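Hi support team,

I've been running sequence recovery on a batch of backbones for a student project. Most finish fine, but this one hangs at about 90% for roughly twenty minutes before it completes. I'm not sure whether the input is malformed or the queue is just slow. I've pasted the structure tokens below so you can try to reproduce it. Let me know if you need the job ID as well.

Thanks,
M.K.
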């Protein structure tokens, strides 16, 4: 049985559905990608789901209609995901939206199933929480866009938790491996979807892995060689590693029956919470 699924983008103009419960192991969410050429636009609507739009690169103006109100978000731009914090937009169920771009734009999206949502919301780069946890090669940068209960921007979404991470060259993201697939005092089941970008002087790759220790041991490793992949994760510990000299960008989203964020780490590495420097030869 396969617990994670790897999906490659098809570079479809407009909205491309990439990951759904029908083509993956996730049950509570979807992932998509929007491409708009310069001088063009696209339209969409939502029923029975909320959506987070996260700009990857380019420029866009977004218009949203919701419950008789009109929302205009103009002049949204982003250069490099490795160097710049994102702008993101929350779209509730029962809304209509349009995106236009002067020079072209790539947007990646997460959806979670719900009947009601909150008002549309613009999250600007100065409203993204950024931190740098870890040490050595597992030190990385995280960016919370729409957080879980008790964390940054927890009031925006009904179900979705969305953020980004950037590795050091040759470094890990999400290490030690962690999981959230059972109901327990310290854990709650959440589907998760990763999407990637990879930067290296001559290209590069990332290893994305998912595994379980007990009682059903498994290990699944995917090779990410460019910017056109997303991965659905329904079970197991997960983490990722960039090749030496390469930097990984990871956009991640989670959703479950409730927006409860409880996870457990691979206990073999729990000592790393307090590690800052390790002597090497």
């Amino acid at each position: 049985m396969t617990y994670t699924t790897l999906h490659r983008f098809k570079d479809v103009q407009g909205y491309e559905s990439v990951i759904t419960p029908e083509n993956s192991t996730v049950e509570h969410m979807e992932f998509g990608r929007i491409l708009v050429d310069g001088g063009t636009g696209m339209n969409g609507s939502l029923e029975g789901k909320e959506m987070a739009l996260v700009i990857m690169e380019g420029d866009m103006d977004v218009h949203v209609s919701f419950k008789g109100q009109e929302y205009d978000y103009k002049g949204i731009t982003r250069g490099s995901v490795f160097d710049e914090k994102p702008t993101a937009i929350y779209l509730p169920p029962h809304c209509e939206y349009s995106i236009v771009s002067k020079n072209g734009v790539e947007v990646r999206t997460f959806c979670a199933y719900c009947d009601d949502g909150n008002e549309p919301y613009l999250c600007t780069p100065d409203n993204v929480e950024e931190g740098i946890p870890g040490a050595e090669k597992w030190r990385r940068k995280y960016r919370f866009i729409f957080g879980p209960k008790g964390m940054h921007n927890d009031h925006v979404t009904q179900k979705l938790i969305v953020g980004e991470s950037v590795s050091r060259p040759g470094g890990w993201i999400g290490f030690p491996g962690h999981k959230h697939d059972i109901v327990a005092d310290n854990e709650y089941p959440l589907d998760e979807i990763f999407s990637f970008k990879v930067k290296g002087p001559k290209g590069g790759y990332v290893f994305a892995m998912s595994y379980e220790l007990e009682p059903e041991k498994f290990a699944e490793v995917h090779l990410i060689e460019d910017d056109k992949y997303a991965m659905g994760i329904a079970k197991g510990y997960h983490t990722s590693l960039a090749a030496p000299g390469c930097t990984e960008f990871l956009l991640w989203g989670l959703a479950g029956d409730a927006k409860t964020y409880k996870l457990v780490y691979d206990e073999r590495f729990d000592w790393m919470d307090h590690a800052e420097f390790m002597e090497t030869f």
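--
Follow-up from support: It reproduced on our side and the slowdown came from queue contention, not your input. The chain has a mean pLDDT of 94. No action needed from you.
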